[in-house]
Amino acid sequence: MDKTPNNKAWFLVLPVAVLVAFSAVIPLMTVVNYSVQDTFGGNQFFWVGLEWYEEMLHSERMWNALGRQLAFSAIILAIEVPLGVFVALNMPKRGFWASFCLVLMSLPLLIPWNVVGTIWQIFGRVDIGLLGHTLAALGIEYNYTQDAVAAWVTVIVMDVWHWTSLVALLAYAGLQSIPDAYYQAAKIDQASRWKVFRYIQLPKMAGVLMIAILLRFMDSFMIYTEPFVVTGGGPGNATTFLSIDLVKMALGQFDLGPAAAFSIMYFLVILLISWVFYTVMTNLDREGR
Questions:
Q1: How far, in Å, CA of 58 to CA of 50, rounded?
Q2: C-alpha–C-alpha distance, residues 254 and 55, integer Å
């Protein structure tokens, strides 16, 4: 018996579609419009085509910012993913201390980004900050406002402190989903701790780890508030990542055309890399099945 499909359920999706249109599609189209035009004020625009895109592709400033951004994201992933897995492996599996550790690990994630930047800005100051004053007392030269290496270390440690908990919680959830039968079989076979991790825990965590890597990459690649509050992109341009450079171009210099083209290219890079991660995650899921 043929059943006539009922499409009334699509009306339930309509509010979401309208919300997405106003919050994402319309602003995106506005940016695209700015990226192909120029203005000299007075709300008068002139068509320039792909001129701003060509200028950005040949801009040493943009490529330098992209290099710093990729380096930062790579360092963050190289530190936070193994560290988060290590923390998850050593967390209690059940009982009061398991709940205590989960709450404790969640606390950094509840702190707003601008507050995190302010905390580390004060924490690292040589005159009043605990970290900066202690290092100075030990004879270690540390000044994130004047030394590029110190600025990078401060921003990286700050991000690790803020976001390693996310990786740890996701990895912990993956570990909790492993049936006890796997551990019992490994115990019967007298498998070592490393083999249990290599052949049981790591494969079962592969899905959640890919999600963690995707989330951390997207967030680290779009980071703005924390380094801007701590270093302002300095010293010089040492910590001027793509987002900070884009804001300086759009609001500081009011170059709307180049900034719009810059943001579109920025968006496409994030979309491309996220698609790569999604493809890898899908293939891993198929192999797991």
A1: 13
A2: 16
CA–CA dist 286, 207 (Å, integer): 11
- Residues ≥6 apart with Cβ < 8 Å to 225: 113, 114, 116, 117
| C-alpha–C-alpha distance, residues 107 and 216, integer Å | 17
Q: Cβ contacts of residue 180 below 8 Å, gap of 6+?
A: none
Q: How many helices and strands in the chain, by DSSP H and E?
A: 14, 2
Q: Are 123 and 129 in contact (CB under 8 A)?
A: yes
Distance between CA atoms of residues 59 and 73, nearest Å: 21
Let me know if 96 is exposed, middle or buried by CB neighbors in 10 A (0-12, 13-18, 19+). Answer: exposed
SS3 state at 93: coil
> Whole-number mean pLDDT of the chain?
87
The amino acid present at 277, given as its one-letter code, is: F
Cβ(209)–Cβ(85) below 8 Å: yes
Distance CA 196, CA 200 (A): 5
**Residue 131, both tokens:** 């970290």
Pairs from 59-62 (Cβ < 8 Å, separation ≥ 24): 61/245, 62/242, 62/245, 62/262, 62/265
CATH homologous superfamily of 59-288: MetI-like (1.10.3720.10)
Domain boundaries, the chain: 59-288
Name the amino acid, one letter, at 108: P
- Angstrom distance (rounded) from CA 258 to CA 59: 10
Element containing residue 39 per DSSP (H, E): strand 37-39
Do 228 and 252 contact (CB within 8 A), yes or no? no
Residue 81: predicted pLDDT? 94
Region 213-242 average pLDDT = 90
Which amino acid is it at 287?
A: E
Whether residue 208 has pLDDT greater than 80: yes
What's the pTM?
0.85
